[in-house]
Amino acid sequence: MLRVLEDSGKIGGVGRLATGMRSDYRLALDVRRFESDYRGGALPVATIEISATLLNNRDQRIVARRTFLREAPAASTDVATVTDAFGRALAAVSSEIAGWTLTNGQADIAVGTR
Fold it and tell me: How far apart are CA 53 and CA 28, in angstroms?
């Protein structure tokens, strides 16, 4: 997630809470599901569900909250193929969360400057 936000080029600095970096916003993530579902013996589906909350650090206000769910089917049951499915699901959900974060952060900044 950090890499996707950094690579966007739209944020001056991105870091973990432990870095002590002063920030305007904080993104809290809760991984609810990270599992392979074999759905009754069929080929596995990598499932990732993440709840995201964007907080404004100045007033500790919740700017936006949303749950994201991505699934990616695996072509077989071997570990490498299932791992690849997780990689695809994670890339998709990370990109979606980053876009959502940037959109909601920009909207919050625009409201604050009025």
Answer: 5
Using alpha carbons, select from 84, 46, 90, 38 the residue that is nearest to residue 68: 90
| 2-112 is a CATH 3.40.50.10610 domain | yes
Helix (H, G, I), strand (E, B) or coil at 64: strand
Element housing 14 (H / E): none
Show Cβ contacts of residue 43 under 8 Å, excluding neighbours closer than 6 positions: 73, 74, 75, 76, 77
pLDDT tens digit sequence for 77-114 = 999 999 999 999 999 999 999 999 999 998 998 887 54
* Cβ atoms within 10 Å of 11's Cβ, excluding its own: 16
Per-domain boundaries in the chain: 2-112
Task: Report d(CA 14, CA 105) in Å as an integer.
Answer: 13
